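Page 42, continued from yesterday. The earlier attempt failed because a stray header line got pasted into the input along with the sequence. Redoing it now with the clean sequence only.
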Amino acid sequence: MYRSGGWTIYFDELNYLTQFLRLSPLVELLWRQGRSLGVSVVGGTQRPFHVPLLAYDQATHLFFWQDSDVVNLKRLAGMGGAVPTKTVLSAVASLEGHSCLYLNTRTGRVALTRVEVGGRS
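This time it went through. Structure tokens are written below.
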């Protein structure tokens, strides 16, 4: 996708791309080199446990929806950067409906938000 000022690569279903299509080397290369090339890399998944650790190491902006899967929560535990692990885990586990936790790993900024669809949440 091209956006004003540069390109954005969006990987939808990272688990599928890395585990089933075996594209992990390509995904990791783009994640590692994207910033130096002026490319934003965005990834989405429902199974964070299977996402390559490199994606987390490079992540600046994270969005979490409610998740009670213990394996996923263990992977999420160390992703907060400046935010304490317990804060991230308790916030993610207690999210409701269309609520989302935003986390900036560099600044430690945390915010709760809701997704509104057609005037309804």
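Notes: The chain has a mean pLDDT of 78.
Reminder to self: strip header lines before submitting.
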